[in-house]
Amino acid sequence: MTASSSTVVRSLLVAGCLVLATGCPKKDSSTPDGRPKPPPANIEAAQKPESKTTAENLAKEAIADPKAAETKYKDKVVELEGKIDFANKIIGNGKAFHLAGAKKNPKDVVSVGIICFPTDAEQEKIWWLGKGQKVKVIGHVTGINTLGVYLDRCTVQELEKSPTVQISAEDLTTEFAKDEAAGKKKYLTEEGYPKEIIIDGTVTDLEQSKDGFYTAKLAGKDGLTVNCTINKETYESLKKGDKVTIKGDLSGFYKNEKHVNVNTAFVLKKG
Questions:
Q1: CATH for 164-270?
Q2: What is the DSSP string of 171-202?
Q3: What does each C-alpha distance from 10 to 4, 19, 211 come to in angstroms?
Q4: Under CATH, to which class is 9-158 assigned?
Q5: CB–CB of 104/51 below 8 Å?
Q6: 94-127 residue pLDDT tens
Q7: Domain extents in the chain
Q8: Which of 5, 9, 189, 196 has the most Cβ atoms closer than 10 angstroms to its Cβ?
């Protein structure tokens, strides 16, 4: 297994843990697609909030006493201010984005977050939201459990610009080729973990590996590519020559393999 494929495996394992957080609080109160049933209100989006708080404080209430929190908030419209934990189609199963909440213990890998299912009108907008971006969300609380707080029919207001870097595949590969250390400092965390990124480029190749991974390669400079790990559905929707905007998590630069690697990637825009 190469360094890049090993990183893919680690990233997908973490993503798998996060996808579990979009599950339902109680088996007998969920819809077939695995989320809590929405409240029996004949409206498309949440209306006037009945309470206002922050995503962090709501998560802390859920941690302290889930039953009391559910009694207080279930089937009510809430307005939350908070920061995007992730808005990624792959991690969110194409349905939900998460607001950062709070951890039961500081060393926990996954926090108790706010799991938000947007209205149809907001669906495509949310994938452009960036990790760490401050937003205001209004939605119906449909359930609270040990994994998180569930909101349905959510609308989102951006309170600040997304911090996620958007760059062309050519410029990204040029940066790494010119100064690898500077590229890693800019595009990876201090601990060396992936950072979210949005890339514009042209599909130069599509590959399916023996171990079940699908890759879309975007043309870079000087023989380098940006290799985006995508799902089967995305793989089948693309062809060589497509101009795309892709979002994912940049995991590193692999000089010997001549590519920058982006995991949990999905298409924001074609053409």
A1: 2.40.50.140
A2: HHHHHHHH-HHHHHHHHB-TTS-BEEEEEEEE
A3: 10, 14, 14
A4: mainly beta
A5: no
A6: 999 999 999 999 888 888 999 999 998 898 899 9
A7: 9-158, 164-270
A8: 196
- Give the closest residue to 156 by CA, choosing from 132, 188, 123: 123
pTM higher than 0.90:
no
Topology match between the domains 9-158 and 164-270: yes
User: Is the sign of the CA dihedral 94, 99, 100, 102 positive or negative?
Assistant: negative
124: enclosing H helix or E strand: helix 123-126
Report yes or no: 53 and 141 within 8 Å, Cβ to Cβ: no
C-alpha span between 94 and 91 (Å, rounded): 8
Q: 224 with 177: CB under 8 angstroms?
A: yes
pLDDT tens per residue across span 128-176: 999 999 999 999 999 998 889 999 999 999 999 999 999 999 999 999 9
